[in-house]
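Fold this sequence, please.
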Amino acid sequence: MSDEGFAAISSGSKLKRTEIMKAIDCDRPALRQNKRLKQKIDEVENELRARGVLPSVTRKGLSETKKFRQRGSEKVVEHEHLSHLEKENLELKAQVRQLKEELSRYEEFSSVLYELGTLPR
């Protein structure tokens, strides 16, 4: 197969396994379990990387690993942030309830003073 053909069936720094299975007429378990076949695919991919047809695996492989680790830590941070926001929300609701009670008390006081006709100085 030509370099253009390999480039057409590549995904990132690897060849698409489904396209390889179609080309050699085998199923997925055979592709996974056959050590010689796996080694040959790895050799072909390494040759293609050396010729510049496929990108190097180190850059993309490391960045994907970092992204996966960051996603895990981001979930923890998001969970902590969510817990903090829920706690703050409950505190603010309690404060609003307290302020509404105080406001109603002052509204009653204001209405009594208005009815008596006296205004505080």
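Residues 62-66 have pLDDT under 50 and may be disordered. The chain has five helices and two strands.
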